[in-house]
Each structure stands twice: as C-alpha cells, then as structure tokens.
C-alpha cells in the first residue's frame, strides 16, 4: 500500500456516486416497481388460494351433510321396506292359515257328506276329494312361494337403490 492520491479518490468517489445515482434512477426504481408488482401478484394469488380453500372446505362440509342425510334416508327406506315385508309376511301367513282352516273345514264337511252316501261311492269320492285337496295345497304352496319371491325381489331392489345412492353421494 503505497501512497494515497486524493484526486483518484475524489474521481472514484464521484464515479461511484454518479453510477449509484444512475442505477437508482434507471435500474433500482424499475426493479422496485417490478418487485412491488410481483409482491402484489403473490398476495393476490395467496388470497385467491385461501378463498378457494375455504370454498373447498365448505363444499366438503356440504357433501358430508348430504351424505349423512342420504345415509339416514337410505336407512329409513330400508327400515320401512323391512317393516313392510314383515307386515306382508305376517298378513300372508294369517291369510294362509285362514285359508288352510277353511280348506280343512270344507274338507271335513265333504268327507262327512261323502261317507253318508255309501261305501260304493266312497272310492270315487275319496279320489275326487284327494285331487281337490292336492290342487288346493299345491296352489297354496305356489302362493307362499310367490310371496317369498316378491319379498326377496323387493329387498334386492332396496339394496340396489341404497348402493346407487351411496355411490352418487360419494
């Protein structure tokens, strides 16, 4: 380190100050504006993202509420369907029991009447009566079977509807 030159120091300082002044006017100002715009854009994007997040949360809550409502409705439908099936089964059983009792009473009367006619007609009468009873019993079995099939079909439809509602709400 040698010697200090005040002229060189002054011109270096003046050049540095001039360069600083030029940079502040032509470079730093546009850079500050550009940074300010970028900052505003970022803040706007953040605000939009927050708004979108809040809307998404609200949509999720709404969907959850709708899903819970749909599940409750499906449960109610299934319960109603089950109750209706039970009622129909009980009703069918009562009707079948009454019908069976009527058939039995009718058969007893037929048997008593036919017994009175005589031994000669007993074979033909018993055969005819047996055929009638068999037909009525077969018809009754088909009616009970049909009721069971209808109940099974109804339950399957309820299950399909519940699955379809569940998949739409998910």
Q: What features would you highlight for this structure?
A:
mainly alpha; about 95% helix; about 170 residues
Note down, in words, how this protein is organized:
It contains 2 helices and no strands. It has one domain (10-169). It is 96% helix and 0% strand. With 170 residues, the chain is mainly alpha-helical. It has helices spanning 6-117, 119-169. The chain starts with 5 loop residues before the first helix and ends with a helix. Helix 1 (6-117) packs antiparallel against helix 2 (119-169). The radius of gyration is 48 Å and the shape is rod-shaped. Residues 122-127 and 132-137 have low confidence and may be disordered.
Number of H/I helices:
2
User: What about the largest sheet?
Assistant: none
Going by helix content, strand content and strand pairing, the class is mainly alpha
Order of helices and strands: HH
Percentage of residues assigned to helices: over 70%
Low-confidence stretches: 122-127, 132-137
For this structure, the quaternary state is single chain
Strand content is under 5%
The average pLDDT value, as a whole number, equals 80
Would you report the number of β strands? 0
Principal-axis shape? rod-shaped
Radius of gyration: 48 Å
The separation of the N and C termini measures: 80 Å
How many structural domains in the coordinates? 1
